[in-house]
Amino acid sequence: MPRRRIKVCLLVLLMTYVLPLGLGMAAPEEKLSKGQLLYVPVYSHVYYGDQEKQILLTAILSIRNTDPARAITLTQVDYYDSEGKPVKSYLTKPLTLKPLASTRFIVAESDRRGGSGASFLVRWQADAKVNLPLMEGVMIGTAGQQGISFTTRGVEIKK
Hints:
The protein has 159 residues and is mainly β. It is built from one helix and twelve strands, in the order H-E-E-E-E-E-E-E-E-E-E-E-E.
């Protein structure tokens, strides 16, 4: 009797959690969208020590289309400084990312204009509801023989 219960439990677990992953099921409806405006925090430098010394960082905005079937189009990629003032617009025309494609936008380590509270605003759209793209800030820098790297995630601020 206990073996049968174990088999039934395993079958239920398999059907509930494992099989749906392998069937290429779409994301739940709440994780689909036709477009968004996202805020992605990045840092052109970070502070360390009692004297607030700075480590300059290269900031990379990574954008990944996570939809395996549909393209998305980036219509705005704007860089802002710590005071919320525009620093640079990275797009002169819309940029389409094919299914599962990615792109990146780089703020050079020597570009100190953004400050420690810099950010990107990214607007994207699609013809139909798609999986939400992944937008991350990737920061990397060195000071002497020390290296630092970390990531941030974009958050939706408007559909």
